[in-house]
């Protein structure tokens, strides 16, 4: 049986649909007799209002959207968990839309946010997004937008990031302090600002330490499999004493390559990563890393967005979180 509508009730009672709508909402200009007839039939038919339509009319959906590049990253699950906890505790529900790192999907997701009348949007940008023009329709409608992790430097909305240059320099300095001067670097998609910043930090650290930069000791990879291939190629062409990886995915790839070469960590080769801290615990030895907490990123981004929605935050705030070195057994 189809879901009963206001039109169905109006037809059965021979009333105007607008009268039925007002009766269901207890409008004072509807007589008590008509209101009772409408509400009794609505209950008998099992009528329930289309809450989405109601929300769209009132511009209050109770929805917050999370726009992400992909679901399968090591970093993202803890981000999602923190955001969901924050928004749910404050009376909102979370919807997650994935771009698969493409601009067209991200543009479509922005349109979905408009159609659903979401009350705020959290964004980790797609790799193809090199400008923020496609978010203008949301901002024009005064829908708050907060960017996190994958951001652009020209961002004029609130954001949550880390100092990608500084944490990379910290990792390379730690390797050098442990006697490693032939360091291979594995980086993600070069279209991403976060990759460019971490690559810049890598080069800066080498320069500060007086280590010549060699382009052949760096590689860009899209995932752990490609990272493993790049690490193998690097080890075959160079005498490397340590790897730096800018993410958990690339750490996984580097460790696979090291195991394939039957090298012992840390006796024959060291490795350090920028990591959420979950994946390094599963290796023996555990992987030394710069802790970049996805949970902290997500929680701070959600709190910022809620503050903007409540109008407690009037001007853009850019939060830069601290990261710390976690020394385990791989260096």
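^ structure tokens above, recovered residues below v
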């Amino acid at each position: 049986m189809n879901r009963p509508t206001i039109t169905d009730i109006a037809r059965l009672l021979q009333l105007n649909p607008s009268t039925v709508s007002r009766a269901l909402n207890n409008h004072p200009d509807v007589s008590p007799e008509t209101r009772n007839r409408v509400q009794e039939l609505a209950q008998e038919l099992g009528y329930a209002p289309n809450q989405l339509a109601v929300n769209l009319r009132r511009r209050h959906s109770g929805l917050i959207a999370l726009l992400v590049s992909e679901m399968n990253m090591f970093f993202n699950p803890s981000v999602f968990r923190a955001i969901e906890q924050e928004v749910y505790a404050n009376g909102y529900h979370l919807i997650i839309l994935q771009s698969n790192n493409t601009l067209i999907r991200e543009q479509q997701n922005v349109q979905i946010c408009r159609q659903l009348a979401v009350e705020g949007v959290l964004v980790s940008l797609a790799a193809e997004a090199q400008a923020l023009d496609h978010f203008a329709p949301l901002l024009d409608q005064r829908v708050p937008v907060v960017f996190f992790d994958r951001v652009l430097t020209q961002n004029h909305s609130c954001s949550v990031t880390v100092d990608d240059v500084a944490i990379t320099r910290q990792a390379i300095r730690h390797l050098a302090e442990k006697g490693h001067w032939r360091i291979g670097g594995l980086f993600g998609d070069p279209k991403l600002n976060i990759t460019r910043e971490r690559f810049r930090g890598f080069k800066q650290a080498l320069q500060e330490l007086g280590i010549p930069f060699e382009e052949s000791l760096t590689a860009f990879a899209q995932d752990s499999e490609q990272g493993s291939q790049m690490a193998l190629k690097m080890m075959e062409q160079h005498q490397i004493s340590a790897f730096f990886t800018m993410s958990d995915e690339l750490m996984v790839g580097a460790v696979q390559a090291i195991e394939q070469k039957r090298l012992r960590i840390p006796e024959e080769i060291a490795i350090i990563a920028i990591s959420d801290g979950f994946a390094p615990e599963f290796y023996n030895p555990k992987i030394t890393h710069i802790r970049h907490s996805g949970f902290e990123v997500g929680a701070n981004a959600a709190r910022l967005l809620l503050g903007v929605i409540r109008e407690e935050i009037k001007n853009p705030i850019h939060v830069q979180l601290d990261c710390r070195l976690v020394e385990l057994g791989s260096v």
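The radius of gyration is 26 Å.
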